[in-house]
Amino acid sequence: MDFQQEYITEVKQILKSLEQSMMVLAQDANNPDEIDNAYRYLHTVKGSAGMFDYHLMENLTHELEYVYSDIRDGIRTVDEYILDLTLHAIDVLNDLIEGNNDEKAVDKLIKSIKELRGDSAGESSEATAASGSSTKKEEAYIIIFQPNENIFKRGVNLAAILEDIADLGEHDIIFHNESVPFEKQLENKAIISWLEILLITDQGEEGINDVFMFLNNDEYSSFKVDGAESFASENYKGLLELKEADINDRIEKFEALAPEIFTSTEAAEEVDETEKSLDTILNAEIEDEESEVVIKKSKKGATHVNVDTQKLDGLINIVSELVTFRSEIQHLLSDQKSVQIQEAVEKLDFLTLKLRDSAFNIRLVPINILNVKLQRLIRSVSKELGKEVDFITEGLDTELDRSIITALEAPLMHIIRNSLDHGIESPEERVKRNKPEKGLLKLYSYNSGDHVFIQIQDDGNGLNFKKIQEKGIEKGLLSKGQKYSEKDLVNVMMSPGFSTADAVTTVSGRGVGMDVVKKEINALRGDIEVSTEEGLGTIITLRLPLTLTILDTLVVNVGEEKYLIPINEIETCIEENHSELFRKKSRQIKLDDQLVPFVSLREYFGREDFPEKEVVIVVNKNDTKIAVVVDSIIGQYQTVYKPLNELLQDIDCFSGASILGDGSTALILNALKLKN
Amino acid sequence: MLEDNKHLLLFSLKQELFGISVKNVTRVINLEKIIKIPKAPTFVVGAINLEGHVIPVVDLANKIDLGITEVNEDKKVIVLEILREEEETMEVGVIIDEVLDVVALENNALAAPPLDNMGFNANCLDGMYKTGEDFYMVISASKIFESELETLVQ
Asked: Do residues A238 and A191 both lie within one domain?
């Protein structure tokens, strides 16, 4: 992968983490860990932005970093304004990293940040003055810099590092091992030299570490030099054994850079020596912490690999083909008598299924990855509406296929928007109704069988069925004077062209209604269910398949054509005579003292000949029962689901297609859509 | 070397001679193991399994108002890949009688198509290709499915 791309991905991830920290801080403004994290994320983005020439990004994070260092130092506390500012900055940074350089937005933000800092600039400058001039004092350092061979492969820009060093202050470089001129080494991208950098800087060790932040710890080390005796210290000796002449040479070089460096300081040093050493210890501790985090991160990196989704899809595809092939083999060898072959087939069976399960597991990601987005939405929408809401989540570690999660984002956001807009009442209204001022929005999710359930519950006003009915009549979706069950009304609410909001609000009236949500969920082979209690709230339940691609089906036939029915939808199968089924004009069959409508596939597909013995398959999906009449059952088959081609998408009585073991194609029935 | 899109695949269908740019053609296969798709648009004859992909097969003659093709195993299917929106393609097979040739198209070798009394929907034509005594109607894959592609974008 190209470094730039890798870098962009990395920054995006950091920004995501930053966003997450913000969400924690929104709940708990004084959480010291998250404040630290936020500061560190900004710091990292800043440092790397400079290296990759993202100057706008560098400037913005630089300003923001001040705010968080103030927060960290207790000079200011996280408040709504800072949160909003940071969240906005995250959006702008995301744009910047995408290459949308909106300079105005950045300037405006920087101005706001500066203004914010301005109101307490007095305090903070006092604070820095009080904390001593240590950071402002010029000091001498020697940096031993030994780049590894692979430094260019890692995308480190050596020239940029040397430039950054120049920015730190006056410096001089002694090249060791320079058998090839250093410029040439840079040009050839093969560094064999190691460098000794003499530097006078007021940025302290932190400044140096910033410059070298992309290098491994063993590639550089820096030492503060207070005079000739520093060269004799143990840790220096470990790296470089110098003769007295060499030491004097270096001292001279330092003095050439800054004449007063070793003489004037010593006297002053005495006074705040203790304080300073304390300072450095503290500093060192902070450094330690940072490197620890870095290690943690790299350890994490070892257990988590970012894989291109296309590669993943490729793997899944092959595994899918293998699953199909396994069925084919099984089919071909089904009449084999040899025990050995049977055992081998069984083993192949077992292994393929295992392989399939692990391959599909890779695709599963926790719902949690949507959390931050949802939280931000809730924050901004509730603010917009002047409502207060507590958002509680549960079971966000429930895993779903990555493509489902991605497709779920829009509908989920819409449902939440709806709950906030139409469900939860304004604070005044809530007080009047003896409810707590703050509304409650709950999102929980759990596994059940091969499905995942996601529920969104609010304690708002619930659905107003009267209003729905009126609206339905007005829109011509319902007829006057007829009685409708709550279920009917819910269905009407989710049909196209229906919106209960009296006026189109900016929040939910964005042209999409519950019908779109329903359509999107159905497209995922999922279902949506609404239960509501007037005045108390609404629960919206989404039922989604774990993965989109593997399906256990019953193979049935109608004439020569085979069709598949998902097994989890099937309740029972019974045999029935054709003449009995078609005795009456009504297409209903009596099952356990209940009338169930049935659809004869032959009749539905326009055929006029029927066998006398037919099979009735009772499908139960979302508590809606429908019976399907077919010629006969062929068997059970595990298939790989294939979506229908774009040309066929309008045919909703089939949800997809599948390749059978013998290579032939079969359509997957969507029984509920067989009505009408 | 001429570019891919300067080659035409020539074929016959219902006594008429046609050409189509090879740019859209992924392959030509025999019409086998086709399954019916009830409730599909009338011009869709069925679907086939092409290496794990389920692809609809369209009666090209029917689609361009040339008549109805009798589906049997002598027929061939040209598998087309049609660009829809950015980067996304749609695969579809169209039934033809026989593949005749693949020819390189010299510059400006396409003549404007006659539009009247063609006996089929001339809107799907890109032009006309003449070689020797024969005229080939060059049809455009995306124009054949223009209305379907439009509804997909919505």
From this structure: yes
In this prediction, residues B83-112 reach a mean pLDDT of: 81
What's the structural domain count of chain B?
Answer: 1
Find the residue in A nearest to B45 (Cα).
A648
Same domain, A583 and A666: yes
Write the CATH number for A433: 3.30.565.10
Q: Please state the length of chain A.
A: 676
Please enumerate in sequence order all residues whose Cβ is within 8 A of that of A425, keeping only pairs 6 or more positions apart, or say none: A387, A433, A435, A439, A460, A461
* Pairwise pLDDT comparison (A15 vs A661), residue with the higher score: A15
Same-domain status, A565 and A657 = yes
Q: Do B18 and B12 contact (CB within 8 A), yes or no?
A: yes
CB contact under 8 A, A648 and B37: yes
Cα–Cα distance measured from residue A396 to residue B51, given in angstroms and rounded to the nearest whole number: 38
Distance from CA of B111 to the nearest CA of A (A): 31
H or E segment to which residue A401 belongs: strand A399-401
Interface test with A, best of B31, B34, B45, B49 (most A CBs within 10 A): B49
Task: Give the domain extent around A144.
Answer: 134-263
Query: Does the beta-carbon distance from A659 to B145 stay under 8 Å?
Result: no
CB pairs A-B closer than 8 Å: 70
Q: Is the ipTM of this complex over 0.95?
A: no
Residue-number span of the structural domain to which B109 is assigned: 4-153
Nearest to A644 among B36, B54, B58 (CB): B54
Q: Which residues pair with A365 in a beta bridge?
A: A400
Contact status, residue A298 vs residue A291, Cβ threshold 8 Å = no
Q: Are A623 and A643 in contact (CB under 8 A)?
A: no
pLDDT tens-digit readout, B61-81: 888 888 888 888 888 999 998
